[in-house]
Design goal:
By secondary structure, the chain is of the alpha/beta class. It has a 7-stranded mixed beta sheet, with helices on both faces. Strands 9-8-7-10-11-21 form a 6-stranded mixed beta sheet, with helices on both faces. Strands 5-6-22 form a 3-stranded antiparallel beta sheet, with no helix packed on it. The radius of gyration is 23 Å and the shape is globular. The protein binds adenosine-5'-diphosphate. The site of adenosine-5'-diphosphate has 12 residues, from helix 7.
């Protein structure tokens, strides 16, 4: 753990192992922190806050610029740690490190644009000023699927705003978190500004972050179930929360779209990170007029995707993170096939060519999916593309919106009018129109409904860590 600028063992002396999901091999062990370690980290963050929040934004930005340069200089070695521990192909890991570093750069710059306002008063002898101040100590909990960028997406805006932070990474990817905090250590942030508590059991760390009144804000990325529970607890103490939760993205291919182009886009976005992304398309709606050419192209492309170790050239499909995820994927396919869906590719665990020690699931397409199937409603988090063939454009909008989630949605069309209709009427926070990568450190990321609260990245991202203070001056 990294607390008050030092690498520490857990108070209990306990450790836990991190393993490679492609091979089952143990990669290393890290401290397993609990409540007392978390309290120590909060003490440190609270002490550092009084100094860090008083630096000028230019001084805070300097530290973030340094962390950005160091991260880019370490892009290759960080990518290796990520591929080993999380399993994604090396090229994808390199892209993620760049994306992670982008947040450090963007928020170093955004720190200088923490503006206030002057507000005209109805009284001649009164002046109003609204200023923005950091909320205080932040508790952050991050997931394993994007184990480096989800850390900087929270740490960079928090630190830019003048907050200090205690972060608990996912138990599947503690080595990635350690590698990021080694960069923060090299960047020379004052002790206590950014603290890391690794833990095999997340519950006590979360409980301490929630119960300590000095923690004024909780930022979480993970499942809707855990996010809802944390938010309820935070609500009892009126802590601010930002939540990036699950998704169930629709991918709509309109009758005027180019079916080949759409199939290519779907293959790229659906199988990215082996489908383990909250913005992964989970319900593919294709108009009946172009369903056959679309499915033909999609099947050819998906059958060509190679699974294996992320270090092997040409591999596009890494392992799933755990046995539990593997079983969930198997169960969704089995349920769909039993209820009449047709399998066009994959559909089972991969057990050959050395893949048997990892959690590999074949890239899968199922067609004729209906609302009665589990996969229609349940988030997949795996390499399965469920296709629903539709006839009516009004129906498809309501079907796409018929989910408790509201994170990302994708539409393929050549008609400007259709594009606007979907953009304005889909109840999701991020809409890709003929675009499969609607994300950037400069663009607001976040969801509606059960997909969460608040936005990360962009101008909105820093506001999550700032509080408005009004001054009324009688003159
Ligand atoms: P996923 O399904 O992506 O693994 P989780 O919501 O279980 O999603 O995990 C996301 C993050 O939330 C991880 O860092 C995990 O350790 C943490 N987490 C899970 N349960 C709790 C809890 N009860 N209290 C605090 N953090 C938790």
């Amino acid at each position: 753990m990294f607390i008050h600028g030092e690498w520490l063992s857990a108070d209990s002396g306990e450790v836990f192992q991190s393993t490679n999901p492609a091979t089952g091999k143990v990669l290393g062990q890290v401290a397993s922190g609990s409540r007392s370690d978390t309290r120590k980290a909060i003490d440190s963050a609270a002490e550092a806050f009084s100094v860090w929040s008083k630096l000028t934004v230019y001084e805070r930005a300097e530290f973030l610029y340094r962390a950005h340069s160091l991260m880019m200089a370490e892009q290759d070695s960080l990518a290796v740690v990520m591929t080993e521990e999380q399993g994604k192909p090396l090229a994808a890991s390199r892209n993620e490190v760049k994306y992670a570093a982008d947040f450090l750069l963007w928020f170093a710059e955004e720190a200088k644009r923490i503006y206030g306002r002057t507000i005209p008063s109805a009284r001649t002898d009164q002046r109003f000023f609204a200023i923005q101040q950091p909320v205080g100590v932040v508790g952050a909990i991050t997931p394993w699927n994007y184990p480096i960028s989800m850390i900087t997406r929270k740490v960079a805006p928090a630190l830019a705003a003048g907050c200090t932070i205690v972060l608990k990474p996912a138990e599947f990817t503690p080595l990635c978190a350690k590698a990021v905090f080694e960069i923060f250590a090299k960047a020379g942030f004052p002790p206590g500004v950014a603290n890391l508590v690794t833990a095999a059991d997340p519950e006590p760390v979360g409980a301490e972050l929630l119960s300590d009144s000095r923690v004024r804000k909780l930022t979480f990325t993970g499942s809707t179930e855990v996010g809802r529970m944390l938010s309820q607890e935070a609500g009892k103490r009126l802590k601010r929360v930002s939540l990036e939760l699950g998704g169930h993205a629709p991918f709509i291919v309109c009758p005027d779209a180019d079916p080949v182009h759409a199939a290519k886009g779907l293959t790229l976005v659906k199988f990215l990170n082996t489908g383990q992304a909250c913005i992964s398309p989970n319900r593919i709606f294709v108009h009946s007029d172009i369903a056959e050419p679309f499915l033909q192209e999609l099947t050819a492309r998906v059958k060509a995707l190679k699974a294996g170790s992320g270090f092997e050239p040409g591999v596009k499909i890494g392992p799933l993170v755990s046995k539990g995820e593997l079983e969930k994927n198997e169960n969704q396919v089995q349920d769909a096939v039993e209820k009449g869906a047709r399998l066009l590719a994959g559909g089972c665990r991969l057990m050959e060519d050395g893949l048997e020690n990892g959690y590999f699931f074949a890239p899968t397409i199922i067609r004729d999916v209906t609302p009665s199937m589990l996969i229609y409603r349940q988030e997949t988090f795996g390499p399965i593309a469920p296709v629903i063939i539709y006839d009516d454009s009004d129906d498809v909008l309501s079907m796409a919106n018929d989910t408790d989630y509201g994170l990302a949605a994708y539409v393929y069309t050549k008609e400007l009018k259709t594009a606007f209709r979907f953009f304005e009427n889909l109840n999701f926070g991020i809409i890709g129109i003929n675009d499969i990568n609607p994300t950037s450190a400069a663009a607001p990321f976040g969801g509606m409904k059960d997909s969460g609260l608040g936005r990360e990245g962009a101008t909105e991202g820093i506001l999550e860590y700032l509080e408005t203070k009004l001054g009324g001056f009688s003159v």
